[in-house]
Amino acid sequence: MATKVKLDTAGSVWKVLVSEGDGVKKGDTLFIMEIMKLEVPHEAPVDGKISAVHIAEGDQGLEEGLVAMEIS
Predict the structure, then answer these.
(1) How far apart (Å, rounded) are the C-alpha atoms in residues 52 and 37?
(2) At a CB cut-off of 8 Å and minimum separation 6, what does 37 contact?
(3) Which of 3, 4, 11, 65 has its CB 3.0 to 4.6 Å from that of 33, i.e. a possible disulfide?
């Protein structure tokens, strides 16, 4: 079963650092959100492989709880 990486808070996507198929380790930075002019990194909660990416650089107005990526 895939682990879903959700947004902790609403904001915009500043940078996406991984793509589908990439291997990640727990603690690796997956993407960076811009929230009220602050850069907030989101890290991998588990080791695995990126199985889906649901966000893109420049996406704006994303809501808290949105599934950004899936790791299997």
Answers:
(1) 27
(2) none
(3) 11
d(CA 39, CA 13) in angstroms, rounded, equals 9
CATH code of 3-71, in short, is 2.40.50.100
- What residues contact residue 17 under an 8 Å CB cut-off, 6+ apart? 29, 30, 31, 32
Spell out the domain ranges in the chain: 3-71
pTM, two decimals, is 0.93
For each of the chain's 72 residues, which pLDDT tens digit applies?
899 999 999 999 999 999 999 999 999 999 999 998 899 999 999 999 999 999 999 999 999 999 999 999
